[in-house]
């Protein structure tokens, strides 16, 4: 059974174009459902998910048991807090799900045009099924995944934007199959792979009834749901994936949840409280048993005694105490933590210093449960291109014809001869080199806004720079490198005019000739696509003489091994190294000729590989290898990628904060190394160690030991930096991963070059395994996604390479320098605030539960609560929760300016130092002291003479409990004034309002004649001894805390003074937090 199910999943989809009645099934509809619940399933599913939390399930069991065991404690004492927390959580999730439901309805009822039975029909989007012919017009969104069959644009292609899919705003091209009159019923069928979430891959074939051979289909033939048609196009496509099977929806599904490091200490503290509770319960139970065995037999008028050794009686007695002290486990803390995280995310999203006005991009928070870990990061992994640099390329230099040239406007300057050259004055090698650059690319040209093309006379009168500017503005490139190269060529007078009907049109501006424009045409035969694995792209063209050429460009480490040996290769290799030392990005360019027979053989192999549904990419890659050999090297290019603003200052600040920064890049070692020096990733004066091109295990181990020994013997205090290339990284990860990680973690800066995206994620995984560090990864491109998702915290930059990294990240910012504020300010605040929230919860629960434990000594261990049920119901909800939760949300130990000026303050929170066992024990002991003072002061007031009311009445049991809870509420709220670092009028107002809420609720409740608290609070408030007790007991509790605070402030370091130069953002923009 399992094997048949597995084979069915591997079977390809077969879709009849035009659709059949059998395909129009409900399961195949284009209905999108992003909700988790329905009206019927909301309560059972939501409550089931909540009860999966151990604390919630524990309270549920306690509530159920309380109905049968302890008569002195109402089950509502456990039930009401549990229901309150669960209802709030359910309402939050329910409202979010209802909003998703309304959004789904809008999407599903959008009107679309389909062709059925040869006629166009307008239907709701949700009723599209696989096989339907869907019509999409200009500026329209594609409703499902379609294979493009027909377009009104030239060459049966259309332009699209994928901003809704991956955030990229540049235009992309989708091609229809090379056949006419495709969009009609019964024309054939599409055979393709089953839906996958990969946005950049698609394998299928089009089997036409009119043709014997199949046409290959790739991602270039597919319009994905969410893309938008641009231009004056009307396209027709066949629906293949619909509804929840579209690639967009598959990418929107849950992919895993990261948990914060705070979960560890929260669980640790709760376990400690539970263990403490069980110990107290066990002690009280044993004392009760001893009393029952020795005391009760001496009192015969109590009647016959039950069998206390019966298992059921033992179990019941033990559970009675357990129910009494279940308040020690803070269930409502989880709700308060979620509330704190929501506000923390809001503060980040509203921070004007994290808002980029140029792109209208605020900070995005996709995982608020990780807010506090922003203040715990030890290792930062960063991409280089687009992250540390702007990814704005400028064609700066090239090497061709045995010389290096600098591009200066419309001329080439040769430093060796100190002369300027026009392109036409250089030799044939230079012409071939620049022709290769204008042919080997994937750039598209948008149509001009003018009224048709200019006449040849007009073109002759225009200068080269104006011609270049006009065409360059209409270039649409997926890579900034390609656009920069074409812009440089256009400025030199070799202009790419576009590709129409697979004919590439070039123009050469010949200033020395009267007829100064030469038109060149090349037939584009095939494009060998670029990929991160191939690190190169190639194109096969036929020139006007009928000669077939293959042009290739890519990383020199990939191109050089495919070139014929020559002296030029060594010269260019040396020059590329010099370019890299200047921090420039380099490419090597080569070409070769192909015979008709070689080309025909290649195309046959390619066609056979391209129609395969399994292992298609591997087969195509092997096919490409057969022609990308025997190349003649033409030259090399060097492009400048400027550093991001304030990169050096940001990296220095983060290193001062204690972060070790790893830059993982695909660039050449020399390029990345020099940029690392320029941006101060590698600290000035650092001792730098290189491990380059080392692959043998023994040699690797020896080199690692040599470097480690060098670090141990040299005690100069210098920081260490490690530089490694991709080949070495692969060997290190395979043979000596532990030794590599131990050595690298001793370095302040690590630079890994020539890495693939997989290697980036493998390095992050290696460091995560140490379990001693909190890692963060930041990047801007699709190749950084695996690294971002693997790290404990992923941070995406909304960059020129698109939004895919930002979409997959936990947090997203517009610029790299915003990272400093995100970590040093928001990370610090969130980490410190959560620790206070958790510790204060433990403190207050010790006080309220401890008083109940002490009371058992004086009530014959009867498991009776000292508090009225009202107090237990409202204590965690109203009396104290609002005041300290608001303080936890808004408290600031240091100002934003101070945290930015002194990054070393970040170290004080590293490894959750603020929640160590010693600090936890301090809070617990403080709570125990307050518990003893509050209880025994109340006991002392009533011990000798309990006539404390003005009419001569004695205080009863309810009065004793009211005395304790009154001081407890006042002390708990006023203690916030002593532990707070930042108090506002609103803080004071909430504290006073919490105390007033206790007074008011108790007063109103004591007016009810049916309650045991009837008229108790009235007499309490009218008694002078009660007021004296409140004042004296409160002062006794808080006075030692106040003295300790004074002593601590006297001997602690004064707050550091702020550096004014780092507060410009604060002065110019107002922080909404």
UniProtKB/TrEMBL annotation:
Keywords: ATP-binding, Hydrolase, Magnesium, Membrane, Metal-binding, Nucleotide-binding, Phosphoprotein, Translocase, Transmembrane, Transmembrane helix. InterPro entries: ATPase_P-typ_cyto_dom_N, ATPase_P-typ_P_site, ATPase_P-typ_TM_dom_sf, ATPase_P-typ_transduc_dom_A_sf, ATPase_P-type_domA, HAD-like_sf, HAD_sf, P-type_ATPase_IV. It is found in: Endomembrane system; Membrane. Its EC number is 7.6.2.1. Mg(2+) binds at residues 383, 385, 780, 784. It catalyses: ATP + H2O + phospholipidSide 1 = ADP + phosphate + phospholipidSide 2. Residues 109-173 form the P-type ATPase A domain. Residues 30-74 form the P-type ATPase N-terminal domain. The chain crosses the membrane at residues 54-70, 76-95, 269-287, 307-329, 836-858, 870-889, 917-939, 959-978, 985-1006, 1026-1047. Belongs to the cation transport ATPase (P-type) (TC 3.A.3) family. Type IV subfamily. This is Phospholipid-transporting ATPase. The lineage of its organism: Eukaryota, Metazoa, Ecdysozoa, Arthropoda, Hexapoda.
